[in-house]
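Module 6 notes. Inverse folding takes a fixed backbone as the condition and produces residue identities as the prediction. Think of it as a translation problem where the source language is geometry and the target language is the twenty amino acids. Below is one complete input and output pair. Work through it position by position during the lab.
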């Protein structure tokens, strides 16, 4: 016995337009996700690592220091013997004195540590004060640095 094939429903012009519209909407949604937001400078308390100068970075190791201290300026210079010298201005954002510890580690151009991390320095910042700390690389091989605050 021969079974009749079911008739396909006719596609109306509106039904033909739906799949391309869905595809276009999906592409538009994906394109919106791929678009990067306009760059904004992060607030100091929101960053745990921030770029400094050309060769350095700042790492704030705990939440209390992150909300109380920021690095407002950095001066990098090469000494006569080729070693890197870094001066960082640390700013107390709090309305009370803050005790922090600061350390600087130097790296060569490939990122390998040069001379190990330096000692931690205790620093008391008066309320809303700015204080400069200096770090000098142990050898001329240092090309980068990381300042750590806790």
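Target side of the pair, the amino acids:
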């Amino acid at each position: 016995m021969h079974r009749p094939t079911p008739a396909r429903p006719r596609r109306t012009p509106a039904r033909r337009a739906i799949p391309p519209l869905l595809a276009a909407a999906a592409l538009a949604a994906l394109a919106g996700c791929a678009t990067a937001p306009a760059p904004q400078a992060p607030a100091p308390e929101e960053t745990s690592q921030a770029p400094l100068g050309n060769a350095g970075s700042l790492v704030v190791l705990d939440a209390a220091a992150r909300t109380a201290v920021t690095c407002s300026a950095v001066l990098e210079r090469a000494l006569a013997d080729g070693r890197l010298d870094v001066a960082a201005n640390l700013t107390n954002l709090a309305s009370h004195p803050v005790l922090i510890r600061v350390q600087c580690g130097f790296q060569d151009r490939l990122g390998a540590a040069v001379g190990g991390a330096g000692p931690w320095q205790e620093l008391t910042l008066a309320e809303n004060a700015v204080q400069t700390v200096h770090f000098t690389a142990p050898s001329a091989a240092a090309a980068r640095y990381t300042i750590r605050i806790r």
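Reference fact for the lab report: The two ends are 86 Å apart (CA to CA).
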